[in-house]
Hints:
Structural class: mainly beta
Mean pLDDT: 79
Strand content: 35-45%
Order of helices and strands: HEEEEEEEE
Strand order of the largest sheet: 1-7-6-3
Largest sheet: 4 strands, mixed
Low-confidence stretches: none
Radius of gyration: 13 Å
Number of strands: 8
Helix content: 10-25%
Amino acid sequence: MKKILILLTIMLFSIESGYCSLDKEAVNIYNLKKNSSYILNLETKAEKINVSDNKLLNIVPVTSIYNDGKQIFIDAIENGVCDVDLKTSESSYKIRFITGPNFEDNNGDIVLVDMPFD
């Protein structure tokens, strides 16, 4: 049931959200809240995702309603700093996710999925 709710929420957010403005040359930094889930929209299909510490973050590619694979689902599990190398069909990005109590707004690049869990 939880997977169905997550899928429906992802589909809803994918319609309303624009694409993120990831910088190809620099390290992109995003602040996350512990025990929260996020969706990051990409310009092209995510092909390879390398996470430096899977105990801190769980990142999986998501297929949107258009079946294009241009989204990733991020689950912030623990506090800490995690580096991610993301390769899409057109370019590569370096992203640093900082999970902790000091949360800052990410300017709409990343969408918080606010779902109640047991």
